[in-house]
Amino acid sequence: MDDVRQHVRLFIEQYERDGLMYTDCPSCNKPNKLMIGPADEGGHWFKCLSAGCATFGTTGEYVPKPGRNIPVPGTSRKIYPSYHRDPKFKELSTDRYRFLATRFHLSGRSTRILCTGEIERRYVFPVYSPDGPSRGYVARSYDTGESRKALLRPYEDIPTPMVSWYWPKHRRNSYRSVVLVEDQVSAARLGMYMPCVALLGTSISTPAAEEIRRVGTLYGVESTVVLLDNDACTTAERIADFFHNGKPIPLFDDDVKDMHPAALDELIEVLRG
Question: Domain count of the chain?
């Protein structure tokens, strides 16, 4: 089991820290069958989905709880150079640009902010800081058969939070709320109307929560809305607990990224109160 735990830790370190992930199971060797997620007690849990494989457990690593910004000894993340320095980076073709805009009902501005190019057929989704400059990127694939859909590529080591900010075109001095969602496409859609943060998963780190609180105070934010799927209600409540004005709202139908424009308009009205 120690070998499996090491396999999981290396996978998390290389590709992603937060959210639900899948990789090959080292016990039964079935591809993309080992499911990994954040554990309530800290670290990550893992479970093989293959019939007959009994692989499951936790990594047992400590993760700070809300209000306890305690460093984890030896914790670091693999860092990468800017996508602009990758010789395989190129601008999006017209067809690839239209695919994103059409599939997710994105405006031209939102599409250009969401995606700045591609590397080996993976869309480059920059991870934006509150002030704009990117702190990394996600290499996102929508190709059928690709087992690892999203690869996180941070530029900086911990504690820089890997969450991505999206803002309306004309930024105001104050906002009633900031919305937290799981993915960048959803955040780009909502970011046309109000400040939105893509958590890049379904959990939040202490540095990320501190950043959201700091920016929220700067803009006079009255509520921090956590918008996750209906089956992640407990997770949404746990994330909302990081904020004195946290407010979890479940999504009973489509994710924000998949919503029809009319349904998104209704959601916007709810969020604006």
Answer: 2
